[in-house]
Design goal:
It is a single chain. The chain has 346 residues and is of the alpha/beta class. Helix content is 33%, strand content 19%. It has an eight-stranded parallel beta barrel with strand order 7-8-9-10-11-12-13-14, surrounded by six helices. The chain has a four-stranded antiparallel beta sheet with strand order 2-3-1-4. A two-stranded antiparallel sheet has the order 5-6. Helix 6 packs across helix 7.
Length: 346
């Protein structure tokens, strides 16, 4: 793949001329608008094309071959941090931090609404909740499905929030897109390439979780599947990997945050709930995740965790959410990445 970097004053006519030339050589041009200039990725077998073929076109500043396997996710392609616009003034990425919170699974309307109100009163406006739950055991609670999606949308709209929920099946992409603002690809589906491709085509913002044993290159290549379909709104999520330690569910390696920030322009969220598996450790690791420079955290919340149908031991209680937000604001301020919160007005 190579990248055609347009001049700052390049016109729409110049851009379309580059795209037309690319198609002559059976290359798929993917336009990536930036703050200052447009970059066009040429996807396909470019061996028969010389860079000079495009350098000579009017409006082209330079042509750069991308050598990394994860081409569109690489900083070689885009140096500036990507900022994902979720709508209503909510963004993920750049120099700010966010909190995503809510129950692991939607169980009923009261349970969801109670948890959503707790997090919304703390200024959090991205509500997480699983309608489809891929579980290790086929006998465990698998989620409410479509009814859960409808409840998520209803409660989120009532509280002026955005919805992130997991998608597990390629056949459910259209259905989930009707209700969710952000699609979540779980760790078990990180290398489900058919699902990644379909989600990339859907165009919705996507958060992809790192697989249980995935290397960072494998992680970024999974993101590349989504990016290569023309969907540039991709968020990475570190949620811990499988190791030998038995005291926690997974090992949360926060060292990957600065490494990923060096390798890629994509935003990075950390999920300490799934990594730790025990609520008494979640806040400390959430604060550490913010201190590491991540673009935010995602935590699970339940008003009655002992009654939860899914992952109750790791869910924060309402008082813990309030404590987390209070302490998180101090951490974010200290590293000059303000925590974005929205006042609640019933």
């Amino acid at each position: 793949m190579m990248m055609v970097i347009m001049k700052r004053d390049a016109t729409r006519e110049h851009i379309e001329r580059v795209k037309k030339e690319a198609r002559v050589f059976d290359l798929e041009p993917l336009e990536m608008p930036g703050e200052e200039r447009v970059i066009i990725a040429l996807k396909g077998d470019e061996r028969e094309v010389t860079t000079g073929r495009f350098k000579s076109l009017e409006g082209v500043a330079s042509v750069v071959p991308i050598l990394k396997k994860y081409k569109m996710a690489s900083r070689d392609t885009k140096w500036a941090d990507s900022v994902i616009d979720i709508g209503k003034g909510i963004t993920i990425g750049g120099k700010k931090q966010v909190i995503i919170a809510g129950p692991c699974a939607v169980e009923n309307e009261k349970q969801l609404r109670d948890a959503a109100e707790v997090v919304r009163k703390q200024g959090i406006r991205i509500l997480r909740g699983g309608a489809y739950k891929p579980r290790t055991s086929p006998y465990a609670f698998q989620g409410m499905g479509l009814d859960g999606l409808r409840l998520l949308r209803k409660v989120a709209d009532d509280l002026d929030m955005k919805v992130i929920t997991e998608i597990t099946d390629i056949r459910k992409v259209v259905e989930v897109c009707q209700y969710a603002d952000i699609l979540q690809i779980g760790a078990r589906n990180m290398q489900n390439y058919a699902l990644l491709t379909e989600v990339g085509r859907a165009g919705k913002p996507v958060m992809i979780k790192r697989g249980l044993s995935a290397t960072l290159e494998e992680f970024l290549l999974s993101a590349e599947y989504i990016l290569s379909e023309g969907n540039t709104n991709v968020i990475l999520c570190e949620r811990g990997i499988r190791a030998f330690e038995q005291e926690v569910r997974f090992s949360l390696n926060l060292g990957v945050v600065p490494i990923l920030k060096d390798l890629t322009h994509l935003p990075i969220i950390v999920d300490p709930s799934h990594a730790m598996g025990r609520r008494e450790f979640v806040i400390d690791m959430a604060l550490a995740a913010l201190a590491s420079g991540s673009h935010g955290i995602m935590v699970e919340v339940h008003c009655n965790p002992e009654e939860a149908l899914c992952d109750g031991p790791q869910a924060l209680t309402p008082p813990m959410v309030k404590d987390l937000v209070k302490r998180a604001k101090k951490i974010s301020s200290a590293i000059d990445m303000p925590l974005v919160l929205f006042p609640y007005k019933p």
